[in-house]
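Figure caption, in words: inputs first, then the predicted bound structure.
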Amino acid sequence: TTATRPSGPADNRGARARAAIAAKTLRTDRWWFPPLVTFVGLAAWVIYATVRVFMHKWYFVEDYHYLTPFYSPCLTDRCVEGAAEFGTPLPSFWLIPEAAFTLPFLLLFRLTCYYYRKAYYRAFWLSPPACAVPDAHGKYTGETRFPLIFQNIHRYAFYAAVIISLINTWDAIRAFQSPSGFGFGLGNIILVGNVVMLWLYTVSCHSCRHITGGRLKHFSKHPLRYRFWTFVSKLNTRHMELAWITLGTLALTDFYVMAVSAGWFSDLRFIG
Ligand code: FES
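Bound structure (FE2/S2 (inorganic) cluster present):
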């Protein structure tokens, strides 16, 4: 027998037509809940980060050398002494963030991330909002044309993210400091915890997985790369969790540095 295709409006990629179902969706569960949570979570984070980046204050605790990741590396001539580890080549115009060299790359890295793409395509563009729920838009061209074809630059943004993670690692090391020399406080635990999570998120990236094990014909001939690939693959299954965890640790680290710097509370010190 010959299978007949269900009739319905042809989608514009010439793939299979959608079944002729009158209802918008046959799903009866709360399919709208995950995209709603994603929308609220991502919107709240973006608003918080934007406000903080343009605040231009409370980003550095001089005594303990705590620098928030949102201002690292601090490059404008507004940067307080000690925070500017790499010089101050940028003017202090309010529209220029202290970390103007790194923030655009971080934004690019996250915006083009395979997980975040899924998250905001569903929660913000409703394209589609969930499995088996129709797209809110009449036309669908995927990521094959301008502007979404630029999502492909994710693999290059990955290299920038590695460099930025190295800078954040340096910041976390520098923070083991007190006015009397070596120091260790709750802020160090938060800064180090954030950096560890940032590395796990970065290394679990799909591009990293491809770099370690992609384009190989025989894993047996590349045992070292196979090992790395196996490790990255395991982490990769947690990429979504790590994407959210790092949003949390970044906001927590920034808030802690802001609170200590503003004098809302003092750092809990164990040494120094
Ligand atoms: Fe998410 Fe690369 S896929 S960071």
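DSSP finds eight helices and four strands in the chain.
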